[in-house]
Amino acid sequence: MTRRFFRFHELVAVTLGVLFVVSCSSGGGATGCGCMEPLPTGRYVGPKVDDAVNLRLSPAGINYLNTNWQQLVEMFAPGGALQIPVGCMKQNVAVLGDVTIADQGNASGQGKLDGNCTPGVDLPANVTVNITGFQLVPKANPDGGLGDVVEGSLTISVDTGKIFARTTNPNSFGCIFLSPVECSVRFNTAKAAVAPAKATNKITAQVKFAIDTKWDKWLSFEVLKPLKGVGICGTQPDCLDPNDIDISGENFCGNLLCGLADWKPLKNLLFDLIAPLLQTQVDKAVAAQSCEQCGTGKPACPQYPNGNPVAASTCEAATSTCKDSATGKCVPRFLGVEGRVNLGTGPLANFGVPASAMLDLSVGAGSSVSIDQKQGINIGTRAGLNAVTVAPCVPMQAAPPMVAIPAPDLDGAADLTKGAYHAGVAISSQFMNLSFHQAHQSGALCLQMSSATVGLLNSGLFKTFLPSLGKLATRDGKDAPMMIALRPGRAPVVDIGKGTFDPVTKKPIEPLLLVKLPDVTVDFYAMIDERFARLFSLTADISLPVSLIFTGCDSVTPAIGDLKMLIANIRTANSEMLAEDPKVLADLIPAVIGLAEPAVASALKPFALPALGQFKLKINEVKGIGNVSGTKLYNHLALYAELKMPGACAVSSPKTVASLKRSEIPAAKAMLATGQGLPLPRAILDVHALGKTGTPEFAFRVDEGSWSTFFPAPNGELVVEHPVFLLQGQHRIEVRSRVEEDPHGVSAPVQVGFMVDFDPPEVKLSADRASDLISLSAHDVITPADKLEYAFALGEGAFTDFGVLRDIGLTAVEAQGGVTVRVRDQQGNVGEAKWRAPVTALRPEEASSAVPGGTQAEGCSAGLGGLSMGALALLALARRRRRN
User: Fold this and answer.
1) pLDDT, tens digit, for every residue of 228-266?
2) Label partner for 359 (CA 20 to 30 A): which of 44, 134, 301, 443?
3) If we measure between CA atoms, which residue out of 439, 313, 391, 340 comes closest to residue 44?
4) Sign of the alpha-carbon dihedral angle for 797, 798, 802, 803
5) Quick one: which of 734, 784, 781 has its CA closest to 754?
6) Which helix (H) or strand (E) holds 255?
7) Which are the contacts of 676, defined by CB distance < 8 A and separation ≥ 6?
8) 525: which strand partners?
9) Secondary structure (H, E, C), 256-313
10) Would you place residue 134 in the very low, low, confident or very high pLDDT band (cuts 50, 70, 90)?
11) Distance, CA of 239 to CA of 242 (rounded, Å)
12) 4 found inside a domain
């Protein structure tokens, strides 16, 4: 990462930081950027969007900050105090001659007053300024519309302690023995019992903001001079009281002369020093925050920004800042983040995203800044995202056009019934679409799923839907490994909706975000003859509805709505290897989306909300704002936040209790693909939210996929349907709860197991005359072979109870006309196979003598338990032969 991340609180931190110190570098700006690497070129080059993200601090938010100013001050003055070093200096004062001030001695302790002011040796006088009050006041257009200002006023309490001074001319005032006059000066704002009306001990700085159009529309700011409140009373409304200064002697001459003369010139000199010292601190803060930094370990100074061939800058060694080569002024500091994000590593790499999937990112304060009539502060950002290379799995496409859209009206769209908001964030649809476009071009949406990424994935999971697949891919009774690849043909498009829900069912009416993926091609492969062969391809337009779930003041979780409802325009290709009509293959798309959901979830995992210094942001409302005329779409995604003190942000959550109440599994015959859709297995959960009063709501996720939105559970029953349930196996459902009246208090999740198994075991019987046995093979997709149970029936007799596998003697069953075997898996599904003895056609006269008294099956008992002693003996004999 080559730049720091500009968080919303840094707007305030920058404004306040110019008051003597800066806190931006300690504000944790780089947190969350650990996945980024520095840009190889040092600077971002690629498309950008103006006002990609707009930030607003409302009047209510400013009032909240002013009311809780102690926590705000911690952002730039930890402990509520500033440290101002007063270095040793020499001044010529009328009558007194040369005076050495702040001569505090040196670290070796060789006396306090030596009059040398040796750089690097003599210690400075460190003055502590305690902050006793703060006010932040936005003021629009103070100088005819050339910029807006934010005024920060500090009320201070200062006790300098003794600052030593001495004359360098021993004849000053004719002191005896030609001794210098040694005094100490102490400024203590608490000294005067009754301060003059104007002695407010208040210092005010005004910071003017503007947009520098020459330097890529970056946000720039400067401190208006002079500072208010650093002079002697009588010269300006806010001032420091000279009566708060004490001067005392530190040697014989000082005892004689310092108190007697009261050294009024020295008092005035002290004030003359305070003003430049404070101004110097402000200048240092401004240089650190307003000017682009350069030097060792920092990017080179920018050249030719915004396509301007005459704009360039150089690094000024004395200040380590970039200076405009044409004007000599400093280049505005880039307040933001730039870096390279490698999506081909980490969770997405496990799903086949190519290692070359990399994006260059730039987000910085700029494009727009204003203080509106309501005295709210508005700042825009200029942002860009660019694919480093176009991945071979996608076609090259031009970036979406950057069409100007109206600025967001966060105030006008706010729901005042939810109370006044403090901070607002509006993310433009343009930036969202640029982001998805570049992610698509990088290959970040190319996924590949196999047993290595999604567990058991073989032909056994699909042959129920496609019987010919089982015949094609099964070898020696074993299912073939499969692989599924997703390739997005076109870049996704994001629609911002109003974000409304049905008040009863809580299902989305107008989704907050609808991510539309046109022309997604899904290729199915199976391992045939030791290589992966493509079985068929499906192409469809897929839409994913996305909402946002906020937990406490700390995190936001994207939630995906119904995955099976928004699939359209399905096309098939390359299906010559299968016997089924290609149209029926469309039924498999939901199952594939279910398989891919964990990959989507890894990219949309919960993330932490930014903090505003010591304050937390509690999101109370999120919705689309800025309606696109003639549509139900919006230009911006808006989040409205309330500022919270650290201790006031804690929320309580219920305890979730969940268990599987019943399973609704379709019969295997219903799972044959027909092109009309497949029924989904359903898990009916018994759920409760305990320990918190309110209307309970529940959300779920399956197999570490994305969380659903929250739903009510009438009568404590939560119905869980998911496309991944089309795939047989053990699934893991996680459930969490909250109450509708306090949606930020989300419980910890609990887990419920859900087995999907609708296929009965496959059973095959054949005669092995060499061993005098009936050979039996049984295979189930889910249940291991040693867990299968068997029941037998000779001829047309009844079945035994289910039990362990036993050998079947060929001679015995032939005598009874054959055998039927049933095999039961652990879920109770039963497969069946029959073997019938061959019948020899005889002439009529021979038939009557071969079977006297009737047919071969006549007189057979009703079940294996009632088999004749001879049949049982033959079975037992067969088992002994088998063992031998």
Assistant:
1) 666 556 555 566 666 777 778 877 777 777 765 455 555
2) 301
3) 340
4) negative
5) 734
6) helix 252-261
7) 587
8) 483, 534
9) HHHHHHCCHHHHHHHHHHHHHHHHHHHHHHHHHHHECECCCCCCCCCECHHHCCCCEE
10) confident
11) 9
12) no
SS3 168: coil
> Are 470 and 534 in a shared domain?
yes
Residue 722 and residue 837 in one domain: no
Q: Are 515 and 538 part of one and the same domain?
A: yes
Angle between helix 9-17 and 264-290 (nearest 10): 150
Average of per-residue pLDDT values in the chain: 79
Of the candidates 121, 116, 153, the one whose C-alpha atom is nearest the C-alpha of residue 134 is 153
**687 and 705 part of one domain:** yes
**Could you tell me the residue range of the domain that residue 735 belongs to?**
390-756
Look-up of token digits 């019948």? 839
Please give the Cα distance from 79 to 81 (Å, whole number): 5
Distances (CA, A) of 805 to 415, 724, 797, 864, 879: 69, 33, 19, 14, 11
Does 440 have pLDDT greater than 90? yes
Peptide bond preceding 712 in cis form (omega within 30 of 0): no
**Same domain as 317, residue 254:** no
Determine, yes or no, domain membership for 365: no
Q: What is the C-alpha separation between 423 and 842, in angstroms, rounded? A: 97
- Does position 196 have pLDDT exceeding 60, yes or no? no
d(CA 90, CA 119): 12
Contact 620, 425 (CB under 8 A): no
Q: Is position 358 within any domain?
A: no
Alpha helices, DSSP H, located in 105-159 = none
Q: Are 176 and 253 in contact (CB under 8 A)?
A: yes
Whether 361 contacts 46, CB under 8 Å: no
Tell me how far CA of residue 221 lies from CA of 130, 244, 818, in angstroms. 26, 35, 95
Higher-confidence residue of 780 and 880: namely: 780
Count of Cβ atoms closer than 10 Å to residue 568 Cβ: 10
Burial class (CB in 10 A: 0-12, 13-18, 19+), 246: middle
Query: Which whole number is the average pLDDT over 333-337?
Result: 84
- Alpha-carbon distance of 66 to 138, in angstroms, equals 12
Residue 638 has pLDDT above 90, yes or no: yes
**Alpha helix ranges (H) inside 44-126:** 59-67, 69-73
Of the three residues 711, 737, 756, the one that is the final residue of a domain is 756
709 lies in the same domain as 808: no
Query: Residue 859 is part of a domain; what is its CATH number?
Result: 2.60.40
> And the tokens for 599?
């990959």
User: Residue 663: its pLDDT value, please?
Assistant: 95
Distance separating alpha carbons of residues 501 and 722, to the nearest angstrom: 20
Q: Determine the Cα–Cα distance for residues 682 and 686; give it in Å rounded to an integer.
A: 13
Report if residue 50 sits inside a domain: no
Per-residue pLDDT tens digits for 798-817: 999 999 999 999 998 999 99
Q: Hey, which residues does 639 pair with through a beta bridge?
A: 425, 622
Tokens 């998911």, residue?
722
Total domains in the chain come to 4
Kindly state whether residues 437 and 508 are assigned to the same domain.
yes
Q: Alpha-carbon distance 170 to 879, whole Å?
A: 125
Residues 311, 171 share a domain: no
Domain harbouring 717, CATH code:
3.15.20.10
